[in-house]
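Lab notebook: predicted structure, single chain.

Context: the supervisor wants predicted structures on file for every construct in the current expression panel, including those that have not yet been purified. This is the next one on the list. No modifications to the sequence; it matches the entry in the shared construct table.
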Amino acid sequence: MDDTEVVARIEASGARRVFGLVMLSGLGAMVLWLGLAGPGGAVPVRIGMAVLGLLVLWVAVVMHRASADSLELTETELRTGSGLVIARVAEIETVDRGLFAFRPSNGFVLRLSEKKPRLWAPGLYWRFGRRVGIGGVAHAAECRAMADALSVMLVKRNTGL
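Prediction complete. Output recorded below exactly as produced.
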């Protein structure tokens, strides 16, 4: 198998993406409205509400851009569809998709051998320190298939098969 051949691919589920964007946009708009035109209150509180509403709307825009991308697993790396490397397979120590794992919805968590700079694509993945969370608005079956493929790769690497 070629090292650049895509073994598994994850894309955002259309319905989950729309639902997430509508919820974030609605929340941001309501909080912004409460800060600007809501019932009277202390000026610092109203300014804080308006700023919070704008922040939530900004997250919705970031999520819209991020969830338009995809994730691809090759024999050597996990990367975005646009080519950004999230983790190299050689750096992955474990794949955790257990019930009580701190992971995104329908997703899984990777533990890396060393710390990496933070990355965040709302609804698709995050990377903080040695942990990478995959999932959110992604298809559950695609996430499960990628987690299984990674698990098989790790078993092959660790047993020398």
